[in-house]
Write a structure and sequence with these properties.
Strand order of the largest sheet: 1-5-2
Low-confidence stretches: none
Mean pLDDT: 81
Helix content: 25-40%
Shape: elongated
Order of helices and strands: HEHEEEE
Radius of gyration: 19 Å
Largest sheet: 3 strands, antiparallel
Length: 98
Amino acid sequence: MTTSGWLRDLWRRWRLQHWAARAHYPVRLRRKYGSEDEQKRDTARLTEHGYRVVDEENSGATVNVAPPPNVYLREGPSVLPYDLPLAVVTYERDQRSR
């Protein structure tokens, strides 16, 4: 997990505890995730508090990690596209959980 992912996870955990302590939750949440693990942890926490996934979309972000062209190679550099598992997920709190 990256440092920014760790900080986002810490912030989300703290906000959820804050809402739970006041028994006042937002009806809808829209969250962006930088990794599948980050999404799984947050979804598990939110599910325990009555949220469910209503929409999930892949951001389609990609990073091209191909090496720069090398004039000493006869063939071109190999292209190594790396798809980032970035997702935007919308959660909604169950009516019965209010």
